[in-house]
Amino acid sequence: MLDAPNRDRNAERREATRREIVEAAWAIARESGLAELTLRDVAARVGMRAPSLYSHFASKNAIYDAMFGQAWSEYESSVLALEGALPQHPRAAAKQYGRHFFDFAVDDLPRHQLMNQRVIPGFEPSPESYAPAVRVLERAAANVRELGVTSEDDFAILIALIGGLINQHHANDPGGDRYAGLLDRAIDMWADAVGLPAEDPAPPSRKSAP
Length: 210
Fold this sequence. Notes:
The protein is mostly helical. The protein contains nine helices and no strands. Helix 8 (152-172) runs antiparallel to helix 9 (178-194).
């Protein structure tokens, strides 16, 4: 019987420490704001001195980069789980896909800002961290094409509509449901414009016999 390969315990501990640093950074971002993140605060949260962080991340932007990649990877995984349960009707599928992105974005403002807005001056995600975002966008575009919408501009308008409602929610109704309530109507307007068939009307309810 062959011996199992030796575990690289140092690498495992190092990776665990990196995860702890990233989670601490998220916690601070959610408490104080994404742009307020400092290496000193992150280090204090994980019981380190700030210079010690440099053995795990080369800069504060490197921490942002790890956060960015983690956020998009989590969303990518959630989309893969969603796609197996999408309804067959094109308009209904578009609404469910849009609702999923909306709910993910409004659930966590700092995560949404890092994923979808440029709020950190000078930060650009690395190709490795940006890769899941590219895959998500390409997959979403392919799914929209399967609905029968082939124009890239039509796809861009859909993304802008949903993103605009998300931004309005965070800016003007955090914790509320006003813009969530407008989402299906906005997608219906888009679906009408691109020619998706209307959803089948609900069957009339049966009346009780007299």
